[in-house]
């Protein structure tokens, strides 16, 4: 029987996504203020910084963007995590992701940890400049790629539209059309929340300026999210998201299985074995970590220099899969196709490496039926099976799982020049056996 967690509210990891300057950090900052998470001293410091950079409207965003470089450039650069928010029905851990194209790699890494997503959209921009909102399309694409459930669309900056109901509905349909174009079916079933993060309208309390809206506030929408089924009965998979040299702490979200202090574990793909010394979550030591838990673990027996983002921790009896080559079923986006020998960047969970396309096995029609064996290429808008070789020397392969075994660890994206050109899932691997140290 799988181990059971004590009866508590479900925990979800939710990524805040969207085009640059659409108000993601301001939205989260305003939520934290409304929940009493921000002290007066922190607000005063953020206001002083905003005044020093010549834009006092940025002060709410500066509650999150605290690095001097982020404040000077007025843009989120690093993924940020926040202690879970308790609602009536769940705990929500928010991951604030960058929107600027220069930091898309950080966005991809952070989004891979999420169960659901909040897509933040500037209502004025989407009505007037939707074709220029490249990062909005990229972030929407990753909602599709990562199969993030129950996305909530926050149509922000309604103050720029004088809180007009008709313009809200036009913006809602424009966003729904964009979501359909990236492969998302039935986007009209998503929750669309009109809001003004900077003006604090419809974030924690209902807005009196939009009496025509009878839906949830942003906080109430978060409370509706249901945690996905957690694979406690599956083998342990813990991808490393970040590593702190001081203390040798590996940070990540447990994707499946359970992890206990004193467990013997293996770190793949380098195949080093150690013992879990301690497990912490938000400065609190715990004895057992379950799927969905955001944890920092200390491992004795494995040198700090060997623990890197993208590596995966598992138990010895059923170690994580490492592939020297794998088959992926992908959909091709954009204006360029795929060909043998093409070497884009591969994003697989929290890992990013160069790769090479070695062959094409099949092409499928829109209905999923095979229409061609061994095509010579895949063109934009086409769907097929390709074989990919990670270029990751001196490693013998990368950690990746198949869709049938671990869906959360099977999603991939191929990117080139800051654009996603194809995405899909791993369906077959040529595995590298676990090498036991001498």
Description:
With 438 residues, the chain is an alpha+beta fold. It has 3 domains: 11-223, 3-Layer(aba) Sandwich (Rossmann fold), CATH 3.40.50.300; 238-315, Elongation Factor Tu (Ef-tu), domain 3, CATH 2.40.30.10; 322-431, Elongation Factor Tu (Ef-tu), domain 3. Helices cover 19% and strands 33% of the residues. The strands form 5 sheets. Strands 8, 9, 10, 12, 13, 14, 16 and 17 form an 8-stranded antiparallel beta sheet that branches. Strands 1, 2, 3, 4, 5, 6 and 7 form a 7-stranded mixed beta sheet that branches. Helix 5 (104-111) packs parallel to helix 7 (134-145). Mean pLDDT is 85; it is low at 1-7 and 73-77.
Catalogue the unreliable spans: 1-7, 73-77
Structural class: alpha+beta
- Total count of strands: 27
CATH class of the largest domain: Alpha Beta
Give the biggest sheet.
Answer: 8 strands, antiparallel
* Assembly level: single chain
Rough outline: globular
Number of domains: 3
CATH superfamily of the largest domain: P-loop containing nucleotide triphosphate hydrolases
Summed up, the helix count is 9
For the termini, the CA-CA separation is 35 Å
The portion of residues forming beta strands comes to 25-35%
Mean of all residue-level pLDDT scores: 85
The CATH topology label of the largest domain is Rossmann fold
Task: Evaluate the radius of gyration.
Answer: 22 Å
Percent of residues in helices comes to: 10-25%
SSE topology sketch:
Layout lengths: L10 E7 L6 H11 L5 H13 L6 H4 L5 H6 L6 E2 L3 E2 L4 E6 L7 H8 L4 E7 H6 L5 H12 L3 E8 L8 H17 L9 E4 L23 H6 L14 E2 L2 E3 L4 E5 L5 E2 L3 E5 L3 E10 L2 E3 L1 E2 L4 E7 L11 E4 L6 E11 L5 E2 L5 E4 L2 E14 L5 E4 L3 E2 L4 E9 L6 E2 L11 E6 L2 E13 L7
Parallel strand pairs: 1-4, 1-5, 5-6, 6-7
Antiparallel strand pairs: 2-4, 3-4, 8-17, 9-10, 10-16, 11-15, 12-13, 12-17, 13-14, 13-16, 18-24, 18-25, 18-27, 19-23, 20-21, 20-26, 21-22, 21-24, 26-27
Helix pairs in contact: 5-7
């Amino acid at each position: 029987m799988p181990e059971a967690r004590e009866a508590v509210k479900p925990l979800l990891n939710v990524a805040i996504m969207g085009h640059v300057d659409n108000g993601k950090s301001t939205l989260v900052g305003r939520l934290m203020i409304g929940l009493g998470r921000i002290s007066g001293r922190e607000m005063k410091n953020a206001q002083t910084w905003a005044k020093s950079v010549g834009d006092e409207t940025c002060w709410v965003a500066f509650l999150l963007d605290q690095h001097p470089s982020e404040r000077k450039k007025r843009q989120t650069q690093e993924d940020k995590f926040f202690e879970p928010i308790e609602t009536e029905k769940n705990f929500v851990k928010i991951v604030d992701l960058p929107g600027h194209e220069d930091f898309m790699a950080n966005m991809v890494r952070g989004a891979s940890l999420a169960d659901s997503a909040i897509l933040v959209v500037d209502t004025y921009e989407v009505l007037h400049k939707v074709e220029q909102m490249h990062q909005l399309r990229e972030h929407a694409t990753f909602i599709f790629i990562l199969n993030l459930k129950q996305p909530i669309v926050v149509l922000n900056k309604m103050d720029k539209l004088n809180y007009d109901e008709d313009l809200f509905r036009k913006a809602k349909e424009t966003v729904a059309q964009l979501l359909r174009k990236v492969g998302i079916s039935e986007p009209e079933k998503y929750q669309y929340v009109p809001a003004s993060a900077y003006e604090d309208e419809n974030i924690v309390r209902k807005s009196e300026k939009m009496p025509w809206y009878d839906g949830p506030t942003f906080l109430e929408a978060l409370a509706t999210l249901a945690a996905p089924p957690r694979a406690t009965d599956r083998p342990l998979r813990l991808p490393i998201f970040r590593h702190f040299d001081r203390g040798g702490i590996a940070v990540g979200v447990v994707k499946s299985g359970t992890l206990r202090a004193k467990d013997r574990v293996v770190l793949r793909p380098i195949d080093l074995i150690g013992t879990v010394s301690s497990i912490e979550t938000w400065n609190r030591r715990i004895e057992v970590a379950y799927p969905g838990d955001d944890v920092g673990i200390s491992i004795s027996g494995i040198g700090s220099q060997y623990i890197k983002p993208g590596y995966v921790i598992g138990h010895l009896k059923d170690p994580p899969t490492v592939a020297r080559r794998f088959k992926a079923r992908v959909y091709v986006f954009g204006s360029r196709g795929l060909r043998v020998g093409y070497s884009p960047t591969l994003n697989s969970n929290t890992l990013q490496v160069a790769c090479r396309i070695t062959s094409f096995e099949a092409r499928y029609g829109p209905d999923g039926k095979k229409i061609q064996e061994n095509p010579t290429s895949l063109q934009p808008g086409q769907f097929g099976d390709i074989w990919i070789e990670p270029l990751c020397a001196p490693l013998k392969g990368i950690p990746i799982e198949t869709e049938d075994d671990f869906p959360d660890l099977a999603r991939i994206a191929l990117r080139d020049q800051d654009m996603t050109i194809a995405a899909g899932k791993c369906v077959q691997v040529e595995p590298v056996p676990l090498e036991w140290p001498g």
